[in-house]
Design brief:
Number of strands: 10
Order of helices and strands: EEEHHEEHEHHEHEHEHHHHEH
CATH superfamily: NADP-dependent oxidoreductase domain
CATH topology: TIM Barrel
Number of domains: 1
Distance between the termini: 7 Å
Structural class: alpha/beta
Strand content: 15-25%
Length: about 290
């Protein structure tokens, strides 16, 4: 496992982090991994050298006791989305109690919420001042937020950004380069194209002829994702099969992870898995 500087925060993160939603596909489609498997995922991730754990999705209740408590080389990243400023500290406190820690290492907030809410910005600054939050990472999930990052790079007051970047969706490279030049950290999501479509479908669909409607038909989410369809299509549709070795009909996930990490300006890439075998497969190229 390689460890990379997380901007100017002083943290050195494993170049792969464990995603907070412990499922490679949507849990409603592939089945909800049992608690004992989720425990094994966390423990195996730590054994393999992963020191960045994503929380805020609900699966963090399965974090083993062995991984809780103070640890100078273990980091937890909390997604809070777009919370009300008055509720933020309570959210942070609840997660700190579960983790048995005094500080959230990385607080992740939606970019648009941070920019539009002065009270939220001040509350985050207060939590950093008191030591409950160590660093701020802005989530660039929505198209407008992604476009702002590619165009202008990171926000001055933030320590890092979380952006969509993978083998078929490379539009964030200009923003990532600007972040590196500004000394900011960069976290990556949707490394395997997101959970909107199975890995098999991503590899075996002819994206030269498939349309956005094809994605709706193949996805377990169906029409419920139409409001974000152009974004989902951009990060899902593409030549994933190029990563396959001769004779393979479906590429392994490892090469897709490895491709992202070839960009040395990436601090860490989140990978979500549903079992230990998927975790080991994703890391096989490292």
């Amino acid at each position: 496992m390689e460890y990379r500087d997380f901007g100017q925060t002083g943290m050195k993160l494993s170049n792969v982090g464990l995603g907070g939603l412990l499922a490679h596909y949507w849990e409603g489609d592939a089945g909800h991994p049992p608690p004992e498997e989720k425990r094994r995922i966390y423990l195996r991730a730590a054994e393999l050298g992963i020191n960045l754990f994503d929380i805020g999705y609900g699966d963090e209740v399965h974090i083993p006791e062995e991984l809780k408590g103070p640890a100078a080389d273990r980091y937890f990243s909390l997604k809070v989305g777009s919370p009300a400023a008055t509720e933020l500290e309570g959210i942070v406190d609840r997660h700190l109690a579960n983790l048995q820690r005094e500080t959230i290492d990385i607080l992740r907030v939606h970019y648009y919420a941070y920019m539009e809410d002065e009270q939220l910005r001040q509350r985050i600054a207060d939590l950093k001042q008191t030591g409950k939050v160590r660093s701020l990472c802005l989530i660039r999930h929505f198209e407008a937020d992604q476009e702002a990052y590619a165009r202008s790079g990171p926000e001055t007051a933030a320590d890092a950004d979380l952006v969509i970047y993978n083998y078929v969706c490379r539009g964030q490279e200009p923003g990532i380069e600007q972040a590196a030049n500004a000394g900011k950290g960069v976290l990556i999501m949707k490394v395997l194209g997101g959970q909107y479509l199975s890995w098999q479908h991503k590899n075996q669909t002819d994206w030269n002829t498939a349309t956005q409607e094809t994605l709706v038909q193949l996805s377990p989410l169906g029409g419920s994702m139409r409001h974000d369809l152009s974004l989902v299509h951009s990060l899902t549709a593409g030549p994933w099969s190029d990563l396959a070795l001769p004779g393979e009909s479906v590429a392994h996930t490892g090469p897709a992870v490895s491709w992202v990490l070839q960009n040395q300006q990436v601090s860490s890439a989140y990978v979500a898995v549903a079992n230990v075998a998927e975790l080991e497969a994703a890391l096989e190229c490292l």
